[in-house]
Amino acid sequence: MGTFVISKRLNDFYKFEFVSRKGKTIFTGNDYELRFECEEAIEDLKASIDACQFLRFKTAKGKCFFKLMKAETVLATSRKYSTELMMQKGIAEIVKYGSAAEILDFSTGDSIFSEL
Fold it and tell me: Could you tell me which InterPro entries the record lists for this protein (predicted)?
C-alpha cells in the first residue's frame, strides 16, 4: 500500500510525496506554507482521487511523467519514468491505494533513530 509522506523543503515550505509500497516516490505535491495546508491537500486528494485526471507527458529525452489534476488545478507532478508501462503502473497504484493510504509526517526534522 502506498503512503503519503510530508516533509520540508530547503525553503521551509511543506510538501507531500506519494511513495509506493516499494519505497519509490510516485509523485510530489505542490509547496505549502503551513503544515495543516499540506495535510488538508492530502485529505482532499484522498477523498476525491476518482475525480482526478492524469495528464501524461514525454520529455525530449523520452522519459514519461504525469501531472495529477483536479478541476483544472495541478496538484502534483510525478517522477520521470523510463517507459509508459512503468508510468501506468504508478498511476494504477495511486488509483488503487491512494484513498486508503496512511500519512507519515517527517517535517519536524526529528531523528527517528536514537543517538548511539
Answer: YegP-like_sf
Q: Cell 498511476 maps to which residue?
A: 91
Picking from 64, 51, 56, 46, the residue whose alpha carbon sits closest to that of residue 1 is 46
| pLDDT tens string 31-82 | 999 999 999 999 999 999 988 999 999 999 999 999 999 988 999 999 999 9
Per the domain annotation, does 56 fall within a domain? yes
Domain that holds residue 81: 3-105
CA angle at residue 54 from 98 to 79, to 5 degrees? 75
pTM: 0.85
User: What total number of domains does the chain contain?
Assistant: 1
